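Issue 218. Parser rejects a valid record. Input:
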Amino acid sequence: MQIRGLAFVPVAWGLWSLWGLYMLVILTVISGHNHKPFISDTGIQSPESVVYTIVFMVLSILGPGVAFLQYKFMLYRSEPAEKSFVIIQRILFVIGWIVSFGTTVNAIFSVRSNPLAHRIGAGIGFVGTAIYNVCQAGLLYRTSYSSRLMCHIRLAAALGTIVILVLFAVGMGSFYSELCTGQCSEIFYLPVLVSEYVGFCGLTLHQLFSYTDFQSLTLTVSRKGITICLREKTEDPKNPA
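Output the parser choked on:
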């Protein structure tokens, strides 16, 4: 069995993320549990807590798959003598798996049952994905099949997410350290809330905009096992890539 073009993998990761976020917010608001919830707040009470676990467990499964395919694509597009490039890709591949571990912890432990474990898992997931996206977006300039404009969009989305997450971290830090209380907390609550959702959505853009490169990958399942290879583009209209 051969599957030509694996663009559906990063697209599935991105669409599942956005759909899951939408459903969690709707369920939390409709149930009356919280009308302005942070993402972690949507996993506190049932029934949205069940959906929260499912959404992030699926992401923890799809994430390593996307990281592996990205790793294979980058290696195929590199030169054999580029040892430093290969080492960087191996490091990023490990980061992808660490992110998956953090996402799993985030899904299992809610902010109510174990707030420390939940925040550590969420931090690993958010920060790790942001770092991974920035690094890959920069490296894709020399390996991607995408247009220059698409590379610019990926890098802008990745860098923008970093800035937003820093602002979010500063805002949350001021709340937990009680540096911002009372009216100050009420004023900055909404901007911090919006920054979290914008940051989460920004993390998905890199994967959604990677579909053009994943289209060039082919997965073959045979008795010898599973093989992923790169099919080069061709100008022959009778045999399109």
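Fixed in the parser; the record now loads. The chain has seven helices and three strands.
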